Amino acid sequence: MFRRRNQVGVCLMALGGIAVGLGLLNAQQRVGTLNPEVLLPVNAVLYVKADGALLHEEKWRETAAYDALVKSGLYDVLKEAVVDTVEQLGQRGQAGEAWKAFEHVRNNGVSFAAALANQPDGAPSPWAILVVHEAGGYDNRLSELLAGTGERELQFDVEKIGNRTVHRKMIPDTPGVEVAFWTEGPHLVLVGGMGAVDAAIAVADGDVAGIRSGTAWASYSDWGDAQATFDATSVFWFDFKAVREMFGGMPLPLPGSDPQNPKRVSDALEVLGLATLDGIVSRSGYKGRALWSESHIVTGGERRGLLKLLDQEPFTLDDLPPLPQNLTGLYATRFDCGAAWDVLTDVARDVEQFIGLGGPESQVDQFLGMADEALGISIRDDLLAALGSLSCVYGDGSQGILGFGGALTVSVEDPSRLRATLRNLLGSAQRELQREDVPFRVRSIERRGREVVLLEIAEGAFSPALCIDGEWMCIGLDAQSVDAFLLRRDGDLPTWEPSPEAEEALAAVPQEIIGLSMTDPRPAIRSLMSMAPMLVGFAEAGARASGELPPGFEWPLSASDLPPAELVVAPLFPNVTVATVDETGVHYTSRVALPAFPMFGGADGATTIATTGVLVALLLPAVQSARSAARRTQSANNLKQIALALHNHHDVYRALPRGTIENDDLEPDERLSWFVSILPFVEQQALQREIDSETGWEADANRQALMSRIDVLMNPGVSDAGDSGYAPTHYVGIAGLGEDGPTLPLRDPKAGMFGYNRATSFRDVTDGLSNTLMTSEASDDFGPWGAGGNATIRPFTTKPYINGPDGIGGPYPGGCNMGLGDGAVRFISEDIDPSVIEAMTTINGRERVDF
């Protein structure tokens, strides 16, 4: 019962904490002196400080948030409910202490810093310090509370260090990591990390410089002070430059790296384009009636690689498409997808070369080529380059069910090319999904002289629509949203004009931007307040029915206690956040009445959920195709690893492995397979040592080993994981032509790479390794990877050869991956001329291969 009471109290206290945590700050008398920075180290790379309510109480009382949450009485209602619950449950101990601590922190604030200290071996080691302002003397009580839990892990040793009483504990099974806390002047100090206690005390005693004397403090803590027009209550910064300089010289354990001249962290950052990222800084506080924040991604020098993605052309509201008159929310951004594709692919190629994976043909280019082939388009040229760089998502209160309408608009560079690309993608998606019995249909209708494409999902129960009209593409939750967009384009429907409140919000932030978010918290709060009586009743009924409440417990909150919704809503106004970019980095400015989720619609959230649903529905076919392409690429990589293992086996033994491990006492399908022979070459030496090669695959001695899953033998596109207890394989060796292919002698014109009782040398392949099939994906009849016979080698016997009755094929539409003797992997179409497959199957058939 004690545990149940505690859970209820904690849950209700958390509810109150969430509410007040948004800035519901109540006045108390201030005590002590706040100088927490003197306790923070000069080498801090991360710094967070929240001043607390009492330092900015006058400015807080001027905000709309104060009127909405405190002046309305909502804060007091929630606070009294939590306190009443704590008292009824008799938890004046731990729960009461937690509430007291919470109120102390919100009133007085905290400071936090994380630093990197060099250990004796030269390796940087992180440690952190948290200073709870004006909480000095609370360390003994905290120690008592931890001891009262009865948990051994929370028992701290107490030792005197100078005039300090330090509560200290070493963390077991770590290289000297410790946690500790003590009183330092008017503050409570908590530290953690290697050598954290000694490092923190050295700073407090003045033996090591404090954070204010560091370059990071000068660079970040006063960022924007010259232009500051708001009362900052909190600051955060992360000094990436310092981290880069400290770790930059560390060598990276890359394969093939020269020990005398290893590649280092700084080299990796150059490749990624992060060598000029200096840091991140954010300040928040009050500006008149608004809660105000400014955040910055700070860069220095030329931006390359990933940082190049920050360079976007600015836009203004005039560049947006005509917006609905009943606009309920807006998010717009500038992002050049084509340029981003080029940046990301270049970075991927550079990373590939850097880590030593580069070869005659880039794996990145192979993957992109396979993705293009799978989708039937050039992703870069046909899709991304055809799109423009400006996109806008908006909520339309005049459309959709109960006004929960909305649409996504994207600027278009090449309308005709984009139409052809989408027609290709949607047609392929429809065929693929219908093949899998997914109810999805693409249908075209005419609206205002334009083609509107309907995507009918679940037999028309949900029908998003899209239309390309000149320089804009509109994707709506329904045809009416697209139709309304076209009407606004034609001037036949009124468009949005900012209200005085919106104009005031927009005028307060930069006008040339690369990103804009504008939401109104009022609909969401009004809806929540209107539902509050019902929610409170449901909560009480549920808690009582669960038996969590003790007898005689009086529910601390009733619907009648809540203030009218308009008292909370009336002071509020639209929230606006914008992003800008210049030579120093990207900057975000936010002016809000009350923090809110970035949602749109009559209930401020439903439309975003629906819009997201539309976009997900639109992207599902493409995502499914992309996932299929990714699995297909991984499967091809598996075949390449198998081929590499076979070549390594050939280098050692001058031949490929026999199709089955030789054992005259057993039939081929009772023997161990050729996969057992290549285990050392796929990093499974230990597993091979567990196998008794003198017995068959079903022998008791081998059962445990053959139950081990080997990822490289598993096709990611196949869901079959085996039902016999043995781990399966989804790949097979090619064993010639005809039902007797696996038993044919080496010189037979129909013999293939594998046979049950023979080993093939590369010099036996007179047709050429690049023209001869060695391995393939399997399409069915999967068996254990350790089993000889049809489970692991198969001949071609019956047309169609690919995805036919022989079980040679794959799960990917149109064909399968097959490995050639030279180690290359190709995707072979299921419509390939059977004579070509026959020619590629034999090792010395003297046929001409043209594919």
Describe the protein in words.
InterPro entries: DUF1559 (IPR011453), Pilin-like (IPR045584), Pre_pil_HX9DG_C (IPR027558). This protein is an alpha+beta fold and 851 residues long. Among the domains are: 2-213, no CATH class; 334-385, no CATH class; 387-496, no CATH class; 628-841, no CATH class. 33% of the residues lie in helices and 22% in strands. The strands form three sheets. The protein has a 20-stranded antiparallel beta sheet, with helices on both faces. It has a five-stranded mixed beta sheet with strand order 25-22-23-26-27. A two-stranded antiparallel ribbon has the order 21-24. Helix 1 runs antiparallel to helix 4 and helix 12 crosses helix 19 (606-653). The radius of gyration is 34 Å and the shape is globular.
Provide the low-confidence segments as ranges: 1-32, 597-623
**Strand fraction band?**
15-25%
Describe the biggest sheet?
20 strands, antiparallel
Q: What is the CA-based Rg, rounded?
A: 34 Å
Count of DSSP helices? 23
**Form type:** globular
Helix content: 25-40%
Coarse structural class: alpha+beta
What is the number of E strands?
A: 27
Mean pLDDT: 83
Distance between the termini: 75 Å
How are the SSEs ordered, and which strands pair?
Blueprint: H1 2-20, E1 44-50, H2 57-61, H3 64-71, H4 74-88, H5 94-108, E2 110-118, E3 124-132, H6 139-148, E4 157-161, E5 164-170, E6 177-184, E7 187-194, H7 196-204, H8 215-221, E8 231-238, H9 240-247, H10 265-272, E9 277-287, E10 290-299, E11 327-334, H11 337-354, H12 363-375, H13 379-384, E12 387-396, E13 405-412, H14 415-435, E14 440-447, E15 450-457, E16 465-469, E17 472-476, H15 479-490, H16 500-507, E18 515-519, H17 521-546, H18 565-569, E19 575-582, E20 585-592, H19 606-653, H20 674-677, H21 685-689, H22 700-706, E21 728-729, E22 731-737, E23 773-777, E24 783-784, E25 793-796, E26 815-820, E27 825-829, H23 834-841
Parallel strand pairs: 22-25
Antiparallel strand pairs: 1-2, 1-8, 2-3, 3-7, 4-5, 5-6, 6-7, 8-9, 9-10, 10-20, 11-12, 11-18, 12-13, 13-17, 14-15, 15-16, 16-17, 18-19, 19-20, 21-24, 22-23, 23-26, 26-27
Helix pairs in contact: 1-4, 12-19
Domain DUF1559: 624-834
Protein name: DUF1559 domain-containing protein
InterPro entries: DUF1559, Pilin-like, Pre_pil_HX9DG_C
